[in-house]
Amino acid sequence: MLAAVCHGAKDLRVEWVPDRPLAADEVRVSVAYGGICGSDLHYYHRGAVGDFALREPMTLGHEISGTVIEWGSAVQGLEAGMKAALDPSRPCRTCYHCRAGRSNLCTNMFFLGSAGRFPHVQGGFSQHLVLREDQIVPVAPETDLLQLSVAEPLSVGLHAVNRAGPLLGKRVIVTGSGPIGLLTARSAALAGAAEIVCTDIEDAPLTVALQSMGATSAINVRSDPEALDAYAKTGGHFDVAFEASGSQPALLSLFGVVRRGGRIVQVGMLPPGLAAIPVNLLQSREIELVGAFRAHDEFRLAVQLITQGVIDVRPILSGTYALADATTALERAGDRSHVVKLHIALSEPA
Ligand SMILES: [Zn+2]
Ligand SMILES: [Zn+2]
């Protein structure tokens, strides 16, 4: 099968890789579409994501959907050709965190297309893929597989909202309106937030935020750097902030606009190393700063919300490239003035 394999910074090759045999509890799928994520872009541009650096060639991709091909002897209930959402998380199911219902924190996780462990976990930008049975979420035959591939980033937004606590009637700010920021805003709207302010440094994603993702107002913090000040005047306007840009200035700005006792959820990934935060404000204003990492049960919820038409992900779909053009797709995916999310067609027409 063909796969988009990253050999290092700016070195992506579409090349043949061997299919591997199935274990009894595994399923082979044909991957239909793969969404390009910020982490794929970091591997492609820098050869690393946060503290995870490439030490061997790795197939990228973890936002995928596909169809079932074959399965091991212990798997029941599948049919060849069945459409499915594909969960990129393969937790151990036995460690403390897995048993506590927080499998995203698993200490022995295999997450698709991640250099977090060695050998790396090969990703989903490949024509075929072998997953454990519980990573396969079958869906109805009429499901749109391109939209379904957004289940993973949507699950990250839903998980961030779960980390925030109840949002009914709350005032929310989301800094950074990339796919994760937008899907977090949409998830916050679903959870009942009364006010949702989205920020970015580009106008294009802010338009999507306002038109389709539940934002009640949008601020371009590059062209209007003082606009957030109004929210700081009263001593902090927002009950909850989601930092989805991965930028240190954005995180800092939140300590002024979140009310006393409010919560900041860090869902964006900052560059490796230390980030300064005003600890005295955190302490004296009892601001809670919590992390949100990937998702667990929210993946199945995301599949449901997409297939039932509760959340329409089409506004973030910006185009699909053939596998042979994967490098072009990764180059263009970084153009945030025009693109929200690009996809690669692995076995479907682009
Ligand atoms: Zn992703
Ligand atoms: Zn575990």
Give a quick set of tags describing it:
350 residues, alpha/beta, Quinone Oxidoreductase, Chain A, domain 1, Rossmann fold, 2 domains, 7-stranded mixed sheet, 6-stranded parallel sheet, 26% helix, binds zinc ion
CATH superfamily of the largest domain, by name, is Medium-chain alcohol dehydrogenases, catalytic domain
Derived from helix and strand composition plus strand pairing, the structural class reads: alpha/beta
Low-confidence stretches: none
Q: For the terminal residues, how far apart are their CA atoms?
A: 17 Å
Helix content: 25-40%
- Radius of gyration from the CA trace? 20 Å
Question: Could you please describe the fold and organization of this structure?
Answer:
This protein has helices at residues 38-46, 96-99, 145-148, 151-164, 179-190, 203-212, 229-233, 248-257, 279-284, 298-307, 326-333, and strands spanning 2-8, 11-16, 26-35, 48-49, 52-53, 58-59, 63-71, 83-86, 89-90, 110-111, 128-132, 136-138, 171-175, 195-200, 217-220, 238-243, 258-266, 288-291, 317-322, 341-345. It is an alpha/beta fold. The protein has two domains: 2-150 and 313-345, Alpha-Beta Complex (Quinone Oxidoreductase, Chain A, domain 1); 157-291, 3-Layer(aba) Sandwich (Rossmann fold). The strands form five sheets. Strands 3, 7, 8, 11, 12, 19 and 20 form a seven-stranded mixed sheet that branches. Strand 17 (258-266), helix 9 and strand 18 (288-291) form a beta-alpha-beta unit. The longest helix has 14 residues, at 151-164. The protein is globular. The model has no long low-confidence stretch (mean pLDDT 96). The structure holds zinc ion (ZN) (2 copies). One zinc ion is lined by residues 37, 39, 62-63, 152-153.
